Amino acid sequence: MNFELVLRSLIAEFDRLQIRCAAIGGFALGVLGAPRQTMDLDFLVHRDDLTKLDGALTGLGYRRIVRTENVSQYRHDNEVWGSVDFIHAFRKISLAMLQRAKSYPAFGGAQSVKAVEPEDVIGLKVQAMSNDPARKSQELSDIERLAARYGAKLDWDRVQEFYDLFGLGEEAKKLKDRFGHAQ
């Protein structure tokens, strides 16, 4: 996947159509300063914008392969364009994530990318490992990279709320003990 080409094209369409979305997942880790290798792009998108989103992506040659209440997945036949996954924001907590999202520089400042805040990436990672225990080691690694990068700057109360939501409150306390100090 040519991330720079795809992001430039997607962001232009998102802006043109006023699609409310923000990067999450591996690419968001990179713009937040905790990079890791990723194979696709993941976004949080406002559920009310799904029809516009579908039109934008099909216009770029993507085809939707999955759409449930919670997620949409798109793939392109040309590997340069790769795949793009979307989590639908419609619950109070995910709508708040979208509301808090900020723009960050990417590709050496050549592009600006809207991404959810580090605490919200952590919350989504906690959800992912709760939903699929096989992903736990990767998700924990991502969480620890963000916690190490942001330390005391994180809103640890928000992080705790995410962990509590999935019955993992003690793990959040241990994470804060390790990384919640001033750097």
Structural summary, described in words:
With 183 residues, the protein is an alpha+beta fold. It has 2 domains: 1-116, Beta Polymerase, domain 2; 117-183. It is 50% helix and 21% strand. The protein has 8 helices and 7 strands, in the order αβαβαβββαββαααα. It has helices spanning 3-17, 25-31, 50-59, 92-100, 118-131, 136-150, 156-165, 169-179, and strands at residues 21-24, 41-46, 62-67, 71-76, 83-89, 102-106, 111-115. The strands form 2 sheets. The protein has a 5-stranded mixed sheet with strand order 1-2-5-4-3. Strands 6-7 form a two-stranded antiparallel ribbon. Helix 1 (3-17) packs across helix 3, helix 5 packs parallel to helix 7 (156-165) and helix 7 (156-165) packs antiparallel against helix 8. The longest helix is centred in the first third of the chain and has 15 residues, at 3-17. The protein is globular. The N and C termini lie far apart (36 Å).
Give descriptors for this structure.
single chain; 183 residues; alpha+beta; Beta Polymerase, domain 2; 2 domains; five-stranded mixed β-sheet; two-stranded antiparallel sheet; globular
> Total strand count, please?
7
Largest sheet: 5 strands, mixed
Secondary-structure element pattern, one letter each? HEHEHEEEHEEHHHH
Instruction: Quote the average pLDDT.
Output: 94
Mind telling me the C-alpha Rg? 16 Å
Taken together, the total number of domains comes to: 2
Number of helices: 8
Helical fraction equals 40-55%
- Physical arrangement of strands within the biggest beta sheet: 1-2-5-4-3
